[in-house]
What we know:
The complex is a heterodimer of chains A (about 260) and B (about 325). Chain A is α/β, with parallel strands linked by helices and about 260 residues long. Chain A is built from seven helices and 13 strands. Helices cover about 30% and strands about 25% of the residues of chain B. Chain B is elongated. Chains A and B meet through helix 3, helix 4, strand 7, strand 9 and strand 12 of A and helix 3, helix 4, strand 7, strand 8 and strand 9 of B. Adenosine monophosphate binds near residues 6, 63 and 128 of chain A.
Amino acid sequence: MKILVxxxxxxxxxxxxxxxxxxxxxxEADLSFEINEPDAYALEEALQLKEKHGGxxxxxxxxxxxxxxxxxxxxxxxxxxxxxxxxxxxxxxxxLGVARLLAAAAKAENADLILTGxxxxxxxSGQTGVxxxxxxxxxxxxxxxxxxxxxxxxxxxxxLEDGWFQHIAMPLPAVLTIQSGINKLRxxxxxxxxxxxxxxxxxxxxxxxxxxxAAGVRIEKLYAPHKAKQAQIFEGDAKTAAAALVEKLKFxxxxx
Amino acid sequence: xxxxxxxxxxxxxxxxxxxxxxxxxxxxxAALGTEVEAAVVGSGIGALATEAASKKVAKVxxxxxxxxxxxxxxxxxxxxxxxxxxxxPALVLFPHTYQTRDYAPKLATRFERALVGDVIAARNExxxxxxxxxxxxxxxxxxxxxEGAGPQFVSLQAGAWRADAVVAGSAPxxxxxxxxxxxxxxxxxxAPFRESSRAVDLTAAEIIVSVGRxxxxxxxxxxxxxxARALGAELAASRPIxxxxxxxxxxxxxxxGQTVSPKMYVAVGISGAIQHLVGMKGSKTIVAINKDxxxxxxxxxxxxxxxxxxxxxxxxxxxxxxxxx
Lengths: 256, 325
Ligand SMILES: Cc1cc2nc3c(=O)[nH]c(=O)nc-3n(C[C@H](O)[C@H](O)[C@H](O)COP(=O)(O)OP(=O)(O)OC[C@H]3O[C@@H](n4cnc5c(N)ncnc54)[C@H](O)[C@@H]3O)c2cc1C
Ligand SMILES: Nc1ncnc2c1ncn2[C@@H]1O[C@H](COP(=O)(O)O)[C@@H](O)[C@H]1O
């Protein structure tokens, strides 16, 4: 079975973010980047399905040149090869535009299963996989916590709110958006890292895929949120702050 | 060119967030000088449509089809697509629920639009709407504009509008038959279920101490456990802690975990992503300990200490013990 996994490169968690001069995106100059968290789980799920059913895992990433480091990491973890839609300014595409790029690249691969993360840590749109499914004419399901392939069909466990779940079955090929925590992530082995260096990364551009930048939905301004409710912050060293807080807990919150 | 509010329902009742969506629709309709139509989609939903018709809307659509008895992304997409083609709204509003996440992007794609998802505010600027979304897990906000002819598709974050702000009224209900071809629905949905009964009922706890990814590694959780013990509190966690298997799932607070409202909730090394906040922002008093002064958790906190939890928590335990003795 051939499994395509969409992986996105995003700024490392806990990065200090600054808005750039144009005020529409972050200043990326001093940032480090990593794989979007749910995408790491999507990749792991693909690798486990391959181990069970055989086949091939192909990583698919749209992004600038720097995304190559994240692609190599996916290859080091066990993806067989990768497709990189190289696009320096992904910001010129909205979610529909990015999904069009990915769907166009995916189409050529004819995969049995396409996995994406459920949401990106930077944009947080939570829709790229669902749009891809529609563009490719495939059934889909979202926020998946378990996937079981039975021949030409797949049965998944979909997360609902408040601790509820539901099983959904659908024919393959299909698209699933994977939730963090579906499996246990592996680390790349030294051997894997070595092998990754020789694995194929196929590069295509938006122009080659015949997709022009278009953003029906556009970011006009990026800014730090206004503070709605000011928390009372206790200053000073740990001991001083802790003492002031405990005073509140004892005499105002009355929990001590 | 009206606003169409899609109302979600669950187990025979309208979802609380459906009323938030109605409130938003009413507010935006007033700002734009247009009116609201609401839609309930499903099978046997007449009573729910009647309930919605007691609000100030121009009309309630009951989109009925036996093929919609169980939610499926294919079925709902086809039904709502047909309704939108019939009513041609300028704006379609959804509550940003798991169900909306599952089909609204597919629906919007059929109209060659991208959904503006998880919106926290909207305002009229010169006759067109500017929407506010959270980026980078709530660390930054973005003003977003959707261009081109409608319909535009927008989903609204839980709690961003007040359900009790919905204005009452009286509206006609019109039944709409989307005429679905059930053979085009590719998903088969089984009945929703809960994992085996929860051994830990966080909702009963008076005080909760909750640990997040700031703890760094499993073995360090003992530090926060110590604080819970000193306060006589129940220990809870954010999702990544449970995903990693450091604590069992049943201790997870948030949209996919438990919703709690204790007398005091202490968030240690938790950034305050919306999916965590919805599970605990009803707490009476919220205390946050985080090394990042800009962490969104401080937006909902009453008291906070900005600092390294490995210094703050032991100091806090010592002070609590002093205060108790
Ligand atoms: C559909 C969906 C459902 C979800 N459901 C849930 C849910 O039910 N519950 C939930 O919690 N999440 C849920 N999430 C995930 C959520 O979006 C966040 O990713 C998650 O809440 C982040 O957890 P965190 O705050 O512990 O980690 P992070 O966001 O990584 O934050 C860690 C924090 O620790 C601080 N920190 C680091 N080191 C220290 C230190 N030494 N001292 C003090 N502070 C420190 C950092 O400044 C940071 O603010 C869901 C996501 C989606 C998309
Ligand atoms: N530029 C991209 N390259 C590869 N995958 C992406 C890209 N953008 C989004 N995705 C995938 O789509 C998922 C959801 O992203 P989003 O819709 O932006 O929240 C991510 O978790 C990725 O799996």
